[in-house]
Amino acid sequence: MKKLVFLIIGVVLIITACKKNDRETNFIPTTPPDFTGEELDFPSDELDVDVEPAETPDNSEDDVVDVSETTTKYVKLSTYGAILNVRSSPSTEEDNIVGFLVHTEPVEVISIENNWAKFLYHGEIRYVSADYL
What is this structure's pTM? Predict the structure, then answer.
């Protein structure tokens, strides 16, 4: 009788203790950290110097991007409080970080090339790693 009781207790413990933890469903989304503006070097709205408009090159068709056909993707991060760096160019250099995204934030992707997603961020073309979308 004792063997049967221990066997039942053992089976119950094994069944209840062997749950698979799904990292994505157990993820707690967090708000992004507050920046005071001192961390990022943004140009001021006031100009102290008279600036003449620069001439635009005739072959500006490379700069034109068709954003009418975008695909909505969502940021997927698996670490609590993690952020995804937004970059000005498709490389991992530290000096090209221009912002960040948080878990489940929507991104309107224009294209994905070489595992970098190109999208509009505050009116400018920016890049994130496509692994996190």
Answer: 0.50
